[in-house]
Write a structure and sequence with these properties.
2 domains, Superoxide dismutase family protein, about 210 residues, 1 helix, signal, binds copper (II) ion
């Protein structure tokens, strides 16, 4: 009898283990399926996100192209760091030339060239008004640079020192000046050199060439 119960117990145990293990297997399978489904969903989401990111990047590239096109459309002038004056003859003088003002740090470097001048010295200055009308009289008096004292020739750019060729060029540095000090004014070339004893105008005689600085 004792053996019978032992066998019965063993059988019951075996049955339970089998049943349980079948249940476990089913659960494990379900868990695997769930995990697989989750992984697939995650992969789909990732692919979608990547596609969206690619689209966004494409749009950003298009925007950059548009911006570049717009930048190209604007005149690529020398602009922010340079202004120039084209010198034209005054009253049939035959004197022409060009003056370039280039910002160099805290200073302005001035390169000036002119031709058609008589031999000797010809002072040139920045004058107060950007107007060469009325035989350059409209350019008005000399511009007083912020750095000019009362006892110097105002707006002075120096002198062309002309030999037989009638031409000369000069390179001058205006210390402590920005382009805003000269932009919209005029350069006037004179018949004579500066007289340093006659500040602030310099008594350089008539006006033989003029150009607006811009
Ligand atoms: Cu002058």
């Amino acid at each position: 009898m004792r053996n019978f119960w032992m066998i019965a117990a063993l059988c019951a145990g075996a049955f339970t283990i089998t049943a349980c293990s079948e249940g476990d297997q089913q659960q494990a399978e379900e868990a695997m399926e769930d995990a697989q489904a989750t992984a697939e969903q995650a992969a789909d989401d990732a692919a979608e996100a990547t596609e969206e990111a690619m689209d966004d990047a494409g749009e950003a590239m298009d925007d950059m192209d548009d911006a570049a096109d717009e930048a190209m459309a604007e005149e690529p002038t020398a602009s922010d760091n340079q202004v120039t004056a084209t010198l034209e003859e005054v009253d049939g003088s035959g004197v022409t030339g060009q003056v370039e003002f280039t910002a160099m740090g805290e200073d302005i470097q001035v390169y000036a060239e002119a031709s058609g001048m008589s031999a000797g010295k010809h002072a040139f200055h920045v004058h107060a008004n950007g107007d060469c009308g009325d035989n350059a009289q409209a350019a008005g008096p000399h511009l007083k640079f912020p750095t000019d004292g009362d006892d110097v020739i105002h707006g002075n750019l120096g002198e062309f020192n002309v030999a037989d060729t009638g031409s000369d060029n000069e390179l001058i540095t205006l210390e402590g000046l920005s382009l805003d000090a000269v932009r919209g004014k005029a350069v006037v070339v004179h018949a004579k050199g500066n007289d340093p004893t006659e500040p602030p105008a310099g008594a350089a005689g008539g006006r033989i060439a003029c150009g607006v600085i811009n």
